[in-house]
Structures are given as structure tokens and as C-alpha cells.
Amino acid sequence: MESRPRPQTCRWHTYTNLGELSQAGAQRILHSARECIARSGRFSIVLAGGSTPRQVYALLRTGSSDWSRWQVFFGDERCLPADHAERNSRMAAESWLDHVAIPPARIHPIPAELGPQQAAAAYAKALASVPEFDLVLLGLGEDGHTASLFPSHDWGDTLDSPPVLAVLDAPKPPPQRVSLSAARLSQAREVVFLVSGAGKRQAVADWRAGRNIPALAIAPPGGVDVLLDF
Ligand code: 6PG
After folding, report:
1. Which CATH number fits domain 10-228: 3.40.50.1360, 3.40.50.300, 3.40.50.670, 1.10.3720.10?
2. Which atom of ligand 1 lies at the shortest distance from residue 148's CA?
3. What is the largest CA-CA distance in the chain?
4. How far apart are CA 58 and CA 183, in angstroms?
5. How far is the CA of 83 from the centre of ligand 1 (A)?
6. Which of 17, 74, 141, 214 is least surrounded by Cβ atoms within 10 Å, i.e. has the fewest?
């Protein structure tokens, strides 16, 4: 822990249900994009995988933004064929990205179909031109994992950690994944966690108690915001 860049600052926001959480999440994303585009002319976002973000992404389909200014990256990906139904990139495309005018060249899926090591090396190169993300979205697993950073595995949470990790034995299927490291996910102006479902209660309790779960290793200078529906 001592070699982490900084301790995590965490702000908790509770909503009545996933619908309200999703509305708040979508508004937060569009607001962040508006601010960044006004300030710098561009907006870089890292997308969360899993199922929770699906409603947020679907709401963004009808959002108003200068989509041509967006750059889209992914926090992690499952090592499955590019068009596989369980790919995080496919979920984001079907629910949102296929329906807005973000130029395809500015959407950067992780080439996880290449296998964990090759994909991690390739994605590290793709990220080299982005020193700091404007907004990182993350989920939380029932065991406290985030992206594909799992308990008892390497989270890449030290200053000298690589930006992208090859994951070979993930406890959440599929076992082979690619994940941005905790250190790289922390190089962000804003980080928002989307956490839904009573099954996450213990992980959140552990997190609030300061137990060392992977989510605690995400420590951007501006702190993290956690949107919860319990
Ligand atoms: C994945 C995700 C993973 C996810 C959590 C929560 O590839 O599975 O990156 O980190 O965000 O497991 O998943 P749910 O949103 O489906 O509960």
C-alpha cells in the first residue's frame, strides 16, 4: 500500500434504484463531456464493462453532445472474439456507441481477441498518447474487484506498474482478460463507480471500512464518486 501514489478519497451517492442511478450517471457523463470539450476541445472516457452500465449507455444514446470530440477507451475486456456477445465492447456498441456519431477511429476497443499478453502490449501503445483520462467509469464485483483487477491478483497499483495487465486466471469468467492497471485507471480527472445490486453490499461495507479490495486502489488526485442503489 505504501508505494501507492496517494490514499483514496471516496464520495458516496445513494439512489433509490438502478433507474435513478443510471439517470444520474448519464447526466454526470454528459456534464463532464460538456465541461472538458469547452475547456480543451476534447473528451476522453474509459468505459466500464459488465451489465450495470448498460442502462447508463442506453440513456446516452439520446444525449446531446459534440460526439466528434469524444475519445472512447475501455477499462477492461474479456479475451473472446471481437463480436462475442459477452464482450464489453459489444455491450457498449449495441447499447450506445453504434447509435451516436462518435467517429469509429476515436473508439478504441481492447484487441482482447489477440490473447491477454499481445492485447495488453498493443493497448499500452494505444494509451501512450493519453497522459490523463478525463473520466473513468468503473463497476464493482461482489468480491470487491473492479475492471479485471481481482483480489489476490496483481492490481498494478504502484507508481512503476505497467498501464495494462494481462489477466490469466480471473475468478469471474472468462479467465483470460485484459485490464488497465489500478495506477493507469487512477490517472484521471474524474472517476465514477456505478454499483448496483444487493449482492455488492458486503464489498461496499469492506470498502467503506477501508479493507484492501481492488476498488480501494483506484486513487485519482480528485478522488472517486461511487453511485449506489442501496
Ligand atoms: C467485467 C467488468 C467487471 C464488472 C463487475 C460488475 O468485465 O465483468 O469489467 O469489472 O464491472 O464485475 O459487473 P456487473 O455490473 O455485471 O455487476
Report:
1. 3.40.50.1360
2. 10
3. 44
4. 29
5. 18
6. 17
